[in-house]
Amino acid sequence: MELSQKTIILGVTGGIAAYKSAYLVRLLTQAGATVHVVMTRAAQDFVGKTTFQALSGHPVLTDTIGNDHDTMEHIHLTRQADAIIIAPATANTIANLANGQAHDLLSAMCLAKGKCPLLIAPAMNHEMWSHPATQRNIQTLKQDGCQIFGPNSGVQACGENGPGRMLEPEELLAEIIAFFQPKYLSQKHVLITAGPTQEPIDPVRVISNLSSGQMGYALARAAKESGAKVTLISGPTALPQPYGVERINVHTAKQMYEAVMKAVDECDIFISVAAVADWYIKNYRSEKIKKSNQKIGLDLEFGENPDILASVAQLPHPPYCVGFAAETNDLFEHAQAKLTRKKIPMIIANLSQDAMNLPHTDVWVLTENEKIHLHPGPKLAVARNLINIIAEHYYQSLRSQA
Ligand code: CTP
């Protein structure tokens, strides 16, 4: 329940994307938010009030005049709200907001909102979006402190193609959740490896491990939420790409090594979460090995893969490096040994039976002279705490270098 205790005002204006906002209400309420919907007259030509009323569980507000329960609704509601999100926000709405117009309840609320943050999800034809007047209005709104979410580019309701599509409801939910997270890493670039690697034996067989990638993906999301630019280099997983994160897919440890080395110069922090295969198969067969040609078992020769984390830590100007140690026994001895051997300032230690392929985890943060036990829980919650701790130590390391 990532939005429990949050009250959100959803403003719906007159665009075809209004139908998607009905699903946004469902997602927001499922995330624990209390949602009050305000519709403009034009919005009601696209979707009926009843839909939003049923989904939000609250009466839909439509106008200042004739509102029988509270004539000061535009003031009172914004005082209780944690944010106003306008989705979809038409070009006309954006122009009105940029100019401080108060034609109807929604625009009056935006003018009377006080400190309540205003989040805007534009939706319009690409020519309208690119028009200098709209771009000017968007700049004005940004200067006024509004957050602009999107728009996406793609095929539009009119059949044309270009920027102006409203973000999908799931993407808007991710933006709204991220909006409430502290921005520990704004302007920073975080590089993360995640998931298992696969070492091919023949065209249909690989050696791999049980890593699901969940912790690396949770850290990618948490880093993105905290304001960082995030590059995720991922071995094969079944997980969806975290919203707003650049993902580079690889299979083998060597591919992961090359992708990391290509990206590492631009990054400030490197978090090595991947369960990298230690060995590759030297005698890879280009044709499928037939059972009938083998004695019992396969005659495999192994070569050592590069240690990606240790290689990054040895660069002349390394980013702040964080490793992971998943152990079955003697957790602290093994983790501490890896910290020293790989010459890194921080390692996250966990027992593989408490974390691997599971949705929750239980971790310790080890540095040269600290051992911090984090509150165990879902991987995203733990990842958010970890990002906070990593950011603190990263800034400390910058200060000590200065
Ligand atoms: N790691 C890496 N490249 C490798 C092996 C490991 O970047 N070839 C990183 C992992 O992403 C992790 C840390 O090193 O952050 C520790 O990985 P782990 O597999 O636990 O340690 P190893 O060094 O492989 O040692 P061992 O397998 O003996 O436990």
UniProtKB/TrEMBL annotation:
Pathway(s) annotated for this protein in UniProt: Cofactor biosynthesis; coenzyme A biosynthesis; CoA from (R)-pantothenate: step 3/5; Cofactor biosynthesis; coenzyme A biosynthesis; CoA from (R)-pantothenate: step 2/5
Phosphopantothenate--cysteine ligase as annotated region, ranges: 190-402
Binding site residues for CTP: 278, 288, 306-309, 324, 338, 342
Cofactor binding comment, as recorded: Binds 1 FMN per subunit.
E.C. no: 4.1.1.36, 6.3.2.5
Gene3D superfamilies on file: CoaB-like, Flavin prenyltransferase-like
Keywords carried by this UniProt record: Decarboxylase, Flavoprotein, FMN, Ligase, Lyase, Magnesium, Metal-binding, Multifunctional enzyme
Region feature Phosphopantothenoylcysteine decarboxylase, mapped onto this chain: 1-189
Tagged with keyword Disulfide bond: no
UniProt domain DNA/pantothenate metabolism flavoprotein C-terminal: residue ranges: 185-392
Span of domain Flavoprotein: 6-178
Catalytic activity: N-[(R)-4-phosphopantothenoyl]-L-cysteine + H(+) = (R)-4'-phosphopantetheine + CO2; (R)-4'-phosphopantothenate + L-cysteine + CTP = N-[(R)-4-phosphopantothenoyl]-L-cysteine + CMP + diphosphate + H(+)
InterPro entries recorded: CoaB-like_sf, CoaBC, DNA/pantothenate-metab_flavo_C, Flavin_trans-like, Flavoprotein
Job of this protein: Catalyzes two sequential steps in the biosynthesis of coenzyme A. In the first step cysteine is conjugated to 4'-phosphopantothenate to form 4-phosphopantothenoylcysteine. In the second step the latter compound is decarboxylated to form 4'-phosphopantotheine. Catalyzes two steps in the biosynthesis of coenzyme A. In the first step cysteine is conjugated to 4'-phosphopantothenate to form 4-phosphopantothenoylcysteine, in the latter compound is decarboxylated to form 4'-phosphopantotheine.
Family: In the C-terminal section; belongs to the PPC synthetase family.
Protein name: Coenzyme A biosynthesis bifunctional protein CoaBC
